[in-house]
């Protein structure tokens, strides 16, 4: 393994409170490592506890493959990045989270440039030297999987698939998946614009049209959701959108809306085609390939629980990272958050909304 990446993680206010309230012999259990690419200056209270428990720009949650405790406050471990694309290995934020994604301890910097962690990675395993600052001795346990990576993935996949096969009902938690425009045609109803400065309807894709009579773009988007047939559920809009990083920021947000995720397991999805500029990534857009890739169905299990797993919301949006003035252009259709876990092999579509009186 390469030399490790050294990280000092500071307890959050809630993390320290939980640690101090433990009964003798008990410990907080870390199940996930949240990784991010944002920059933020951590603020501390008089007790040395971080007063923030969120990352500035969350990339995703990963698991610890191996861990060795070398002192009551120090761990040598490897973090499994296989669930992230190499383009998402430009990391500058880390947080230790419990099984419900609550942040126990956090590392962040306002000055450290976002850097690729590739020099510290072998076979998708990030080598980390972790120091837990200010925690009571032996108050944190890190869950890990000390077995060959291939066997670990196989067992995790089998366990996950078995559990998720029973989650087969999909109801939409967000509004206006077909992206019907407002009355003035300026933007899709119920969606907020983020940092988008141009939005126009590129095409309306209608049911009842023979596939060979549709435009190449319509066929491309329908093929992505396994629905390039004569008839399908409902017509939908393809929008062309342009986004720009505002002055003073290092990111730009695309369209978004707030969805109630308190039902538990949910899936973020859309069909997107990158045209130019910054790469779409994060949350709904995680895994998007840049041009000249065609239209892609992007599905991601929701792993952001603002407010706690069963009293939570999500803003659904992806992100474009860049410098002030950087731009990106993309085509998008059928964005939504739905209950349950939707598999790519099953395709995608306009799911029924909880409130049938609205779109």
Q: What is the terminal separation in angstroms? A: 53 Å
Give the domain tally: 2
Order of the strands making up the biggest sheet: 1-8-7-3-4-5-11
Order of helices and strands: EHEEEEEEEEEEEHEHEEEEEEEEE
Q: What radius of gyration results from the CA coordinates?
A: 22 Å
Strand content range: 25-35%
Overall geometry: elongated
User: Main beta sheet, described?
Assistant: 7 strands, mixed, barrel
Averaged pLDDT: 85
Q: pLDDT below 50 for ≥5 consecutive residues: which ranges?
A: 147-154
Secondary structure: number of strands: 22
Share of helix, binned: under 10%
Number of helices: 3
Would you tell me the structural class of the helices and strands? mainly beta
Give me some keywords for this one.
359 residues; mainly beta; 9% helix; five-stranded antiparallel beta sheet; 3 helices
What does this structure look like?
The chain is mainly β and 359 residues long. It folds into two domains: 5-148, no CATH class; 196-346, no CATH class. 9% of the residues lie in helices and 35% in strands. The protein contains three helices and 22 strands. The protein has helices at 13-20, 149-164, 216-224; strands spanning 5-11, 28-30, 32-36, 58-71, 74-80, 90-91, 93-97, 103-107, 115-116, 121-122, 125-132, 140-142, 196-205, 236-244, 251-252, 259-260, 266-277, 280-281, 296-301, 313-314, 319-321, 327-339. Strands 1-8-7-3-4-5-11 form a seven-stranded mixed barrel. Strands 13-14-22-17-19 form a five-stranded antiparallel sheet, covered by helices on one side. A three-stranded antiparallel sheet has the order 15-21-18, with no helix packed on it. Strand 4 and strand 5 (74-80) form a beta hairpin. The longest helix is centred in the middle third of the chain and has 16 residues, at 149-164. It is elongated and about 70 Å long. The chain starts with a strand and ends in a 20-residue tail after the last strand. Mean pLDDT is 85; it is low at 147-154.
């Amino acid at each position: 393994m390469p030399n490790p990446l050294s990280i000092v993680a500071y307890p959050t206010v809630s993390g320290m409170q939980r640690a101090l309230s433990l009964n003798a012999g008990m410990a907080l259990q870390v199940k996930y490592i949240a990784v991010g690419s944002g920059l933020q200056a951590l603020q501390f209270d008089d007790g040395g506890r971080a007063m923030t428990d969120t990352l500035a720009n969350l990339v995703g949650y990963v698991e610890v493959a191996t861990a060795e405790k070398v002192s009551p406050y120090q761990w040598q471990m490897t973090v499994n990045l296989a669930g992230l694309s190499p383009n998402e290995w430009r990391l500058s934020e880390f947080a230790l989270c419990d099984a419900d994604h609550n942040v126990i301890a956090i590392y962040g910097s306002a000055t450290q440039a976002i850097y690729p962690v590739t020099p510290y990675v072998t076979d998708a395993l990030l080598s980390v030297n972790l120091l837990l600052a200010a925690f009571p001795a032996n108050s944190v346990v890190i869950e890990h999987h000390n077995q060959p990576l291939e066997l670990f993935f196989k067992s995790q996949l089998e366990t996950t698939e078995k559990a998720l096969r029973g989650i087969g009902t999909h109801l939409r938690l967000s509004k206006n998946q077909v992206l019907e425009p407002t009355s003035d045609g300026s933007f899709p109803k119920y969606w907020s614009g983020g940092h988008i400065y141009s939005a126009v309807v590129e095409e309306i894709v209608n049911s009842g049209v023979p596939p060979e009579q549709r435009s190449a773009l319509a066929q491309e988007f329908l093929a992505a959701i396994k629905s390039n047939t004569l008839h399908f559920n409902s017509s939908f809009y393809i929008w062309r959108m342009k986004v720009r990083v505002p002055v003073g920021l290092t990111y730009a947000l695309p369209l978004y809306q707030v969805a109630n995720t308190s039902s538990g397991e949910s899936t973020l999805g859309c069909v997107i085609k990158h045209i130019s500029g910054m790469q779409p990534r994060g949350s709904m857009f995680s895994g998007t390939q840049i041009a000249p890739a065609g239209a892609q169905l992007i599905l991601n299990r929701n792993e952001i629980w603002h407010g706690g797993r069963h009293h939570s919301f999500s803003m659904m949006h992806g992100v474009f990272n860049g410098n002030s003035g950087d731009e990106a252009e993309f085509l998008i259709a059928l964005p939504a958050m739905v209950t349950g876990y939707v598999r790519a092999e099953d395709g995608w579509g306009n799911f029924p909304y909880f409130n049938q009186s609205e779109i």
